[in-house]
Amino acid sequence: MTNEQAEKLVRLIFRTAPPFRKNYIKQPEQAKDLPRIPHHHLFCLIILSRGKETMGSLAEKMGVSVQQLTRIVGELETHGFVERAQSEESRRVTLVSATEKGRELLSKFYRAACEHVREHFSALSDEDIDALIFHMGEIVKLFDKSER
């Protein structure tokens, strides 16, 4: 990557970060009837919705330290949203998984987020929405590719 490409990419990331944080990281108004949980807790549930994770891999995927993750998982566990278990291969490895209650909460947040996005982007044409979906999909593919 050239310096010019890096600068363009950073400008775009910096330009999109505030609207994403304002509109999509905070709990949407449509989820006001759901428990207020910090965004890191929600991100943890999103990752765990794909299956069990070790504490180390979960911390890495979330971009937090294992110590921070221990607090997050502990709070989620206290509310019954996740559970911990020892790995059968190594008792020193702790596996974390979402409980049914955690998956149900995530499903409710997902539905609230869908309603929020429908309202937020209602002024856009179907063509613009299709373009947004396509480009967001491409961004996800590139992020996945850069993490390999």
Mean pLDDT: 87
Helix content: 55-70%
Q: Span from first to last CA?
A: 17 Å
Helical element count? 6
- Written as H for each helix and E for each strand, in order along the chain, the element string is HHEHHEEHH
**Largest sheet: spatial strand order:** 1-3-2
Shape: globular
Uncertain runs:
none
Number of strands: 3
Biggest sheet details: 3 strands, antiparallel
- Rg from alpha-carbon coordinates: 18 Å
- Taken as a percent bin, the fraction of beta residues is 5-15%
Protein structure class = mainly alpha
Quickly list its features:
mainly alpha; 3-stranded antiparallel beta sheet; 148 residues
Task: Give an account of the 3D structure.
The chain has 148 residues and is mainly alpha-helical. 65% of the residues lie in helices and 8% in strands. It is built from 6 helices and 3 strands; from the N terminus they run ααβααββαα. The protein has helices spanning 3-25, 39-48, 55-62, 66-78, 100-120, 126-146; strands at residues 53-54, 82-86, 94-98. It has a 3-stranded antiparallel β-sheet. β2 and β3 form a beta hairpin. α3 crosses α4 (66-78). The longest helix has 23 residues, at 3-25. The radius of gyration is 18 Å and the shape is globular. 13% of the residues are buried.
